[in-house]
User: Which sequence fits this backbone?
């Protein structure tokens, strides 16, 4: 019995302590369970993230999703990594998929809001000419979603929502 507790404490130390000390906002799959191979890939992705190997971490989370599409933490972690890699549209998609599996998750909702603001700010970046094309409609708060949809359609882009 003593050995099993030692293994559990080691797992807690390896998976939780790096997150407590600022290594990133990763979520572990320990509480959620799921397909064992997918859980292992989430853990591997967290380790790769902590080693700052973002590309390999994202690939681990994507493979976990392929194996077990119900594993919400894989979507959350993939969204965090994609965002840090500058892949805002992909990050939005992953966080939205996470929230369909974990509705009302406060941190997920906050991250989604920040990602949307960042994504739309990039579209409206004056250096790219976006604001001039978008015009004054962006300033009218109640018409913003309609104006953004019209702008996206005119530019041939698909809205991330």
Assistant:
């Amino acid at each position: 019995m003593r050995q099993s507790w030692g293994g559990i404490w080691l797992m807690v130390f390896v998976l939780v302590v790096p997150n407590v000390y600022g290594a990133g906002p990763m979520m572990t799959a320990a509480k959620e369970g799921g397909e064992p191979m997918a859980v292992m890939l989430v853990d591997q992705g967290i380790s790769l993230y902590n080693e700052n190997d973002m590309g390999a971490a994202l690939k681990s989370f994507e493979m976990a999703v392929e194996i077990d599409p119900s594993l919400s933490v894989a979507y959350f972690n993939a969204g965090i990594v994609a965002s840090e890699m500058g892949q805002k549209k992909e990050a939005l998609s992953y966080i939205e998929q996470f929230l369909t599996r974990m509705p009302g998750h406060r941190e997920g909702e906050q991250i989604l809001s920040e990602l949307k603001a960042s994504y739309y700010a990039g579209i409206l970046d004056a250096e790219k000419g976006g604001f001039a094309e978008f015009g004054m409609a962006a300033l009218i708060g109640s018409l913003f979603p309609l104006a953004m949809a019209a702008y996206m359609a005119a530019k041939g882009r698909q809205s991330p929502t």
